[in-house]
Write a structure and sequence with these properties.
alpha+beta, Ribosomal Protein S5, domain 2, nine-stranded mixed beta sheet, four-stranded antiparallel beta sheet, 13 strands, about 40% helix
């Protein structure tokens, strides 16, 4: 039997980095997904290995089950109903397994994801042979939540074969987890995110788990209800960055300038709170919608200025900001910054300029920028499971 799970990527409209320090953040899922397929061998297959296939990068790894069990000999009996953090000892043991893979230097960043995979698999399913295939529509390291989507989709597939969730495995088609099951799934995904990013805020995995749009603060989740549709241009600078290092850099700056950074985080909190209020308020006519979009533009610009204060912008991001500003459009980075993706709000009154922006950005990045126009409606995307008997 095979199970397939998918989880969406995300954008952060306001609050990245500051959310780690207690501020409010507003985020939404987008309709780009990471897919995980899990298949256990039949007794006749005579297979005793755990196999991982990363289709998008053309890599395949395998480990004898006995080797994984030996590496985690100090680990307690796996319990899928109790999300467990990876200890330093276990992390070192799993890192030794990953080092043996000799991942190509150009793709060495995948190592942390493989570590998270090994931990989540062994913690939820224990020591069983299986084949796991991962594909994704999300560019890696771009600020669109690719690692969180991986952890959520992987945890969903693994939990579906556990006693911790109640699902009809004979069902043909997409199914969703219930509320309590989503909570368990989110906690497991967060454990994977901690392995990849060190001290993540939890917002990425929460959006990938629950979908739609959320307001997030200090682990507290509020779902945002709205009839408003936002149109966003997402520009990928194709400049890679290290999320863990960027998060650490903001923390170090906070230690050096505690009062100034406290003011920055407080301002971000106010921006996120106001943004959520605007998005949730009714817009009975086109004039009201235009006014709301204008306020959102200003808030995005202010948030970007505060992100620059945190030291997480980049020359490539500034290029996109200057380009879109020529068309009187508001933009901000999304995610960790230091490269990655930039959001540009496209008000309903100026959609005719899209082709010109496309041409100019393509020229600026010498055709090396991945740009896609994504109109998304909140309440549109939810993490789902697809069961194939």
């Amino acid at each position: 039997m095979e199970v397939k799970a998918r989880a969406p990527g995300k954008i952060i409209l306001s609050g990245e980095h500051a959310v780690v320090h207690g501020s409010t953040a507003v985020a939404s899922s987008i309709d780009l997904y990471t897919y995980v397929s899990l298949r256990f061998p039949t007794p006749s297959d005579n297979d005793d290995a755990l196999r991982l296939q990363l289709k998008d990068v053309g890599l395949e790894f395998s480990w004898p089950i006995g080797r994984i069990k030996e590496a985690l000999s100090e680990k307690d009996i796996p319990n899928s109903s109790v999300p467990t953090s990876c200890s330093i000892e276990s992390l070192r043991s799993l890192a030794a397994l990953v080092d043996e893979l000799k991942i190509p230097e150009a793709k060495i960043g995948l190592g942390a994801g493989v570590l998270a995979f090994l931990w989540l698999y062994s913690s939820i399913q224990g020591y069983k042979p299986a084949t796991v295939v991962i594909t994704s529509e999300l560019p890696l390291g771009s600020g669109l939540g690719s690692s969180a989507a991986l952890c959520v989709a992987l945890s969903a597939a693994l939990l579906s074969f556990s006693d911790s969730v109640n699902l009809d495995l004979s069902h043909q088609g997409w199914l969703t987890f219930g509320e309590s099951e989503l909570e368990l799934l989110n906690k497991w995904a967060f454990e994977g995110e901690k392995i990849i990013h060190g001290k993540p805020s939890g917002i990425d995995n929460t959006v990938a788990t629950y979908g739609n749009m959320i307001k997030f603060k200090s682990g507290s989740l509020t779902r945002i209800k709205t009839n408003m549709t936002l149109k966003m241009l997402i520009t990928n600078t194709k400049v890679g960055r290290n999320t863990k290092a960027l998060v650490a850099g903001v923390s170090e700056r906070t230690l050096r300038h505690p009062e100034a950074m406290a003011s920055v985080f407080s301002a971000v909190d106010s921006i996120s709170t106001e943004l959520a209020t605007i998005i949730q308020s009714p817009a009975p006519d086109d004039l009201s919608l235009t006014e709301k979009e204008s306020k959102i533009e200003e808030l995005m610009e202010m948030n970007q200025g505060l992100l620059q204060c945190m030291g997480v912008s980049h020359a490539s991001i500034e290029t996109v900001l200057r380009t879109t500003l020529k068309y009187k459009l508001a933009s901000k980075l999304t995610g960790a910054g230091g490269g990655g993706c930039v959001l540009t709000l496209l008000p309903t009154c100026i959609l005719f300029v899209i082709p010109f922006i496309f041409s100019f950005l393509s020229l600026q990045f010498m055709m090396n920028a991945l740009i896609w126009f994504n109109e998304f409606e909140f309440f549109k995307t939810l993490p789902k499971l697809n069961y194939l008997a």
